[in-house]
Amino acid sequence: MLEIKGLEVKLQEEDKQILKGVNLSIGAGEVHAIMGPNGSGKSTTSYVLSGKDGYEVTGGSVTLDGVDVLEMEPEERAAAGLFLAFQYPVEIPGVGNMTFLRTAVNAQRKARGEDEMSAGEFLKVVREKAKALKIDADMLKRPVNVGFSGGEKKRNEILQMAMLEPKMCILDETDSGLDVDAMKLVAEGVNALRSEGRSFLVITHYQRLLDHIKPDVVHIMANGRIVKSGGPELALEVENNGYADILAEVA
Amino acid sequence: MALAKLKSDATQARLARLTMPDGLTAARKDALGRVAAMGLSHKRDEYWKYTDPMSLTQADPVPAAVFESDESPLFAGVDSVKIVFVDGVYDADASDDLSCAGVEIDRLVDVAGKDIHWATELYGTLETRGQVPVARPLAALNTAFATDGVVIRATGKAAKPISLVYLHGDDTSDVMLHCVVRVDAGADITLLETGPAAARFNSVLEVDVAEGGAFHHVRTQGRDHERRAVTHCFARIASEGRFKSFTLTANGTMTRNECIIEILGDDVVAHVAGACVGDGDDFHHDDTIFITHDGLRGESRQVFKKVLRNGAVGVFQGKILVKAGAQKTDGYQISQSLLLDDDSQFLAKPELEIYADDVICSHGSTTGAIDEDALFYMQSRGVPRKAATDLLTLAFLAEALEEIDNPALADDLYDRLDSWLARRS
Lengths: 251, 425
Description:
The structure holds two protein chains of two kinds. In chain A, a hairpin with a 2-residue loop joins strand 4 and strand 5. By secondary structure, chain A is of the alpha/beta class. Chain A contains ten helices and twelve strands. Chain A has one domain: Rossmann fold, CATH 3.40.50.300. The two termini of chain A are 30 Å apart. Chain A is 40% helix and 28% strand. By secondary structure, chain B is an alpha/beta fold. Chain B has one domain. Chain B contains ten helices and 20 strands. In chain B, helix 2 (25-38) packs antiparallel against helix 7. Chain A binds chain B through residues 50-53, 73-75, 77-79, 83-84, 86, 89-95, 99-100, 103-105, 107-108, 111, 143, 160, 164, and chain B through 371-374, 376-385, 387, 391-392, 394-396, 398-399.
């Protein structure tokens, strides 16, 4: 599904190399997790994959189902099936949550040459999916993320994911700022979306999210590279011993 | 050359082209006297520092091509009394019968013949009051030479909005229209104005709101790229009166909209708002507002939003004057611009002058670019950059549109803005 080969990225403004050759291969239906200390390049990886400005790719490649992603605009990547759940979802005053969702769903459908969803159909689907995430009608009406609590924002991200039905979902520290109940709710939302054709890349600091979203593969990222990969037990090792042992081992 | 001489020469040149129409002679002669004494506006006047009035004051108008629109007229779905002027000339065939329950409507040219006392008395009165403390000679010029317009007296709740449609058909038309509205105690009326009216348009609207009366005003100024307009709205509001005015401007080379409101009674509500979308370095748009509080517990709001790109210039001069004794005044003023590139500019001059000691007055002005984080967020969800920019632009303007009480009118304008933005590349 997603193939990252030798990805090298630097910050445009600071001439600072952040990613120094990231290799990652995620098969269809797999759930991969990336853990790593602060500043290791985890969030940069998610931003570069989704096409945020300010990063210069100096080497390597990224393909989604064999198609070069790095040449695409962010909206083209989205239409191709890539989705990033933001660590800090952006507030958009004046744009209603529903309006935004419908615009996004229909823009993607249009880009893929599909028929747009009718207002009635959209409403039916969105209500159903919102209910599962305990998102009430008021939250759907309000401007995007404005005045939402941390938990509401993250649930809203998962609602967007559920509506857009991407094939490659990247979750950037979706657990940050969530209490245990909110994390469970979000994890349930994610698990409900797991399927054979849909892959996940879960970026997190903490093992506890991975108790709820069970990964197939865990990667440890440090200093712009993936330094170790393994099964779910690797996350437990980090939880118990921190990164020091692993980093010493690979140094 | 000395400013006085420059102004006097320009004024003489302008007056030489004009002939005073019949009727309302006393008021017209008075106004002419004011014009002669003040001289026409000049860019060296402090009040015109950010907007060069030359094209509005010069003897002949700059020609303006007629915009061929394929759109349906705005507010077409609103059941109204439609009154049509083409290049300032009343079009009887296109207009509705001037009758409506709760309202008396006449043309300005008929005021003298029909001996309409209230209109004769009011004509030019509020304009004259509005000349202090700042001179507004283009309004006095209008009072002296306006060829037509309507006089409206709301005696109760108007059954329908009155809709003035200003069509533009001649590249060189130079038009002055003057409307007078009297809202009787407890009466309620909505006035709609749409269209560019002429190559050069000078309009004056005088609104006198009696105790408990309500006046709603929604205006759009047409999409002709080259048209020029100077408009003045003078309002005087008695106790518990309500006044709400909203103007949407898209295109036009030169627009100066002045609104001068005098709150004379207690517990008055006066809101004036505007949204403007400007594109290109020949776009210049100026909102100049002067609100005087001279009653207790008055509430005033000024909400102005401008979206500018490709070198467009927006100006806002807004003043709240709270007189001694106008206690518990609540005055609010916000002017904001969204600059879509580095070439456009927004000039704002917010002013407060307060002589009462128990008031709340606040003002703010911001200039900003589109929020890149919001843009990326929307793109990452599949919304193309252009569409995302449009959505954010509409969201920015929506706050001004919210000042319109009637949701159907606001929706009409919102949809129209949406389609205009979607057409732009």
